[in-house]
From TrEMBL:
Entry keywords, A to Z: Membrane, Transmembrane, Transmembrane helix
Domain GGDEF as annotated: residue spans: 389-524
InterPro entries given in the database record: Cyclic-di-GMP_PDE-like, dCache_3, EAL_dom, EAL_sf, GGDEF_dom, HAMP_dom, Nucleotide_cyclase, Rev_trsase/Diguanyl_cyclase
Domain EAL: 530-783
Keyword Cell cycle: no
Residue ranges crossing the lipid bilayer per the database entry: 275-296
UniProt organism field: Acidovorax facilis
Protein name according to UniProt: Bifunctional diguanylate cyclase/phosphodiesterase
Record flagged with keyword Membrane: yes
Domain HAMP: 297-350
SMART domains, alphabetized: EAL (SM00052), GGDEF (SM00267), HAMP (SM00304)
């Protein structure tokens, strides 16, 4: 990574540090600002609530003062001698005149004289007071009950405050009633006195609400008229107003006095403090950003140095010491620790590189190092040379080395490998060439500029050098080796192929005991064909390329029923009929034989369910491999197939080789017991060629022994084989088992087996393996011969 990128990373780190710290600071400041704002607003509301308590008391006091003013005016009228004389004389005109004059003088909207029976005698009305006589009936009783009190009444949608005083001369000769409107001047006075908005909400008997008196601005007033009395606050265009509703006892309608105070007016002084706090916060953030930037710059400068060091380490440059190791702070400690790590990594990488490319025991290059050398040699040989300079690879594998380890121990084997390595160095002294240990007791030699003749000469020298025994203290060891030779460019086009073919030639030399052997294409053609066949085997099962064949078994003593052995054939679309020996052994090695067994069992079950075979009483033998017996799900899978096709287990005979049983006797015995319990007939195949004991044979739930064909076919030429066959038949019958002989090639062998009391026979003399249709036709022909006989 260049210096420009490191600088960009440093700036990015500084920006991230500054950004993160500023973000945290802003979060804290914003949280504090929000808390302060919420606290101020909460305190402001509490302060307004206290102010509204005072406003309510003042409002009620103003109403009481108005009532006192009315009572004084009413008392003055009641004390007028002329008015009392007029009332006593019944002079209605005088009474009416006095009421009007006195009411106008004190500004009363209503002045009335009531009799002692509280009936209206005279009244002076200001404005439209048509509703007064109707309201009077509800208004007078509570005033008569409390002469010193007052009463609110709604007339014409306007609230009025009424008082009533007695008229005495000296006894009560009537009542004087006066009323003043609760109007705008009273609200204005409240506004001027306490800076509180007042609104009177009147709801008449018709249910409609009006606001005849208000100090609110037009927008707020319109909102109040539209939404009615608020529950606690009113959202207005001018801001939030906290409201206190005071219900006034009234007749003729409902009257509520609303006292409203603005939250914004209370918060206004605090807004300046909040602005000042915001300015202080911004200044603090800027100052903090500058300080953080300086600290980040001081931190990132050594970190950039450490980052550059990590880039050098990633490129494998461990020789450059780190900077800032002389600092005494935490950065210096980190730099010193990192530099110590650099030195340790350098030492470890040196050791790892040595272990990765060199053999610890012999000191020779290992397989990976040798391959790289071959790749490099091929690359250099093709670098402009026409024709290219040849080279050869010799692969060497010691004979009987495992025996040396088993007899003399691994420590002696290691010393032997070191001696072999030294001997190979002596035989290939040129520094242009290379001797390597590929692993175990396998070595390789790279000969640059060597053709086949030179390679053979070198291999011959190595072989001759092993003719001299290796002596260690009092122990002498004779060694030999198989050597494979492959030359470039004749035997391979690339390094990996060259190494592989040299190894193939080495295995060919060990098989032929020829010492040294050069690669030939015929050595691995069979292997390539086998790999191709195995890769196509799964495709064959999936695309129905396999065929079921049946080889008949015939009873030798007229036993009922018919029997056959099921065999598989592969009808390849290009190769034709593939022999079983070309794919069965490798299917067993790879485990794919389990799929072949299930395919065979499925096909046989389908055949046994076919109406053409149901009347034959046919029993079919199916071979099981070692992998089949060790499969814990085998019995379950076979049972599922039986159920699916509706055939009995007794229609099957499962053939198992002795070697399959002896690979894991306990597991094999458990599986055979389960299969026997299901009803399958069990047979030991190739009996006499394995390693089973009579004890196992007695314990296993076996019903049949099948004599190996090598003994049956040898009966004509060797009396020993005939004796083995006869002994096997007697042994099986003594154990209660039936005997099948395979490999019956002639009529003489068949007749000899009949004489020896063998139960069944199969072989080419009886019939070759047949496709299903041919097998059924053969069975029909046999039945016809029996009927003709």
């Amino acid at each position: 990574m260049n210096r420009k990128k490191l600088c960009e990373l440093g700036r990015s780190l500084i920006l991230r540090l500054i950004g993160l710290t500023l973000l945290l600071l802003l979060i804290v400041q914003a949280a504090g600002f929000a808390v302060v704002r919420a606290t101020i607003e909460r305190n402001a509301r509490a302060q307004i609530a206290q102010a509204l308590d005072l406003d309510e008391n003042v409002w009620r006091r103003l109403l009481e003062q108005n009532a006192d003013k009315l009572r004084q005016g009413s008392a003055l009228l009641a004390a007028d001698y002329g008015f009392r004389s007029a009332v006593n004389s019944g002079d209605e005109e005088t009474i009416q005149s006095v009421l009007e004059n006195h009411g106008n003088r004190i500004g009363a909207a209503v002045t009335a004289l009531l009799g002692t029976d509280l009936e209206l005698r005279a009244v002076s009305l200001a404005g439209n007071m048509e509703a007064f006589p109707a309201t009077l009936r509800a208004l007078v009783p509570p005033l008569a009950a409390q002469p010193q009190g007052s009463q609110i009444a709604v007339m014409g949608g306007v609230p009025y405050q009424f008082v009533m005083v007695p008229l005495r001369a000296p006894v009560v000769i009537g009542w004087v009633l006066m009323g003043f409107p609760v109007n705008q001047p009273l609200a204005d006075e409240m506004r001027q006195l306490l800076a509180v908005h007042v609104a009177l909400v009147v709801k008449g008997e018709d249910g409609r609400a009006k606001v005849p008196v208000s100090t609110l601005p037009p927008g707020s007033l319109a909102l109040l008229q539209r939404e009615g009395v608020p529950s606690g606050e009113l959202q207005t265009p001018e801001g939030i107003l906290l409201a206190r509703a005071i219900r006034l006892d009234s007749v003729g309608g409902e009257v509520q006095a609303l006292l409203l105070r603005s939250v914004e007016e209370v918060l206004a002084p605090y807004r300046q403090l909040q602005v000042l706090l915001a300015i202080i916060t911004v200044a603090g953030v800027m100052l903090f950003a500058v300080g953080t930037g300086l600290v980040a710059q001081r931190l990132t400068t050594p970190l950039r140095s450490l980052l550059a060091a990590t880039q050098r380490l990633s490129r494998g440059e461990y020789d450059v010491p780190l900077e800032h190791t002389d600092r005494s702070d935490e950065i210096g400690n980190l730099a010193r620790s990192f530099d110590h790590m650099r030195r340790d990594i350098a030492a470890q990488q040196t050791e790892v590189r040595r272990l990765a490319y060199w053999d610890r025991l012999t000191g020779l290059p290992n397989r990976e190092r040798f391959r790289e050398a071959v790749v490099l040699a091929i690359a250099r040989s093709t670098g402009g040379a026409v024709p290219p300079n040849p080279l050869a690879v010799l692969t060497l594998d010691l004979d009987r080395f495992k025996h040396v380890n088993d007899v003399l121990g691994y420590s002696f084997g290691d010393r032997l490998l070191q001696a072999v390595a030294e001997r190979l160095r002596q035989q290939v002294p040129s520094p242009d060439n290379m001797v390597a240990r590929l692993g175990g007791n396998e070595f390789a030699v790279l000969l640059r500029g060597a053709d086949a003749a030179t390679a053979h000469a070198t291999a011959l020298r190595i072989t001759q050098s092993f003719e001299e025994p290796l002596a260690f203290e009092d122990q002498t060891v004779d060694l030999s080796a198989g050597i494979g030779i492959a030359c470039w460019p004749g035997d391979a086009d690339d390094a990996d192929t060259l190494l592989s073919r040299s190894e193939i030639a080495m295995y060919a030399a060990k098989r032929r005991l020829s010492g040294a052997q050069q690669y030939d294409a015929s050595f691995d053609s069979a292997s390539a064909q086998t790999l191709s066949l195995l890769s196509e085997l799964r495709h064959a099962v999936e695309h129905h390329e396999l065929r079921l064949y049946l080889q008949p078994k015939v009873p030798l003593h007229g036993q009922p029923g018919r029997a056959a052995e099921a065999l598989v054939r592969w009808q390849h679309p290009q190769r034709g009929l593939v022999p079983p020996m070309q794919f069965i052994p490798f299917a067993e090695q790879t485990g794919f034989v389990r799929q072949l067994t299930l395919w065979m069992f499925e096909e046989v079950a389908r055949l046994l369910a076919d109406p053409r075979t149901q009347g034959l009483a046919l029993r079919v033998s199916v071979n099981l491999s070692t992998r089949d017996l060790l499969d814990p799900e085998l019995s379950t899978r076979l049972a599922d197939i039986l159920v699916r096709h509706g055939v009995p287990a007794s229609a099957f005979c499962l053939e198992i080789t002795e070697s399959a049983i002896m690979d894991d006797p306990q597991r094999a015995e458990a599986m055979l017991n389960r299969l026997s319990e299901q009803g399958f007939k069990l047979s030991i195949d190739d009996f006499g060629t394995g390693y089973s004991s009579l004890a196992y044979l007695k314990r296993l739930p076996v019903h049949e022994l099948k004599i190996d064909k090598s003994f049956v076919m040898g009966m004509e030429t060797g009396e020993d084989d005939a004796m083995i066959v006869r002994s096997t038949i007697d042994l099986a019958h003594n154990l209660g088992l039936t005997v099948v002989a395979e490999g019956v090639e002639t009529a003489a062998i068949l007749e000899r087996l009949r004489t020896l009391a063998c139960d069944e026979a199969q072989g080419y003399h009886i019939a070759r393996p047949l496709p299903v249709d041919d097998f059924l036709a053969w069975q029909e022909g046999q039945a016809h011969q029996v009927r003709q006989g």
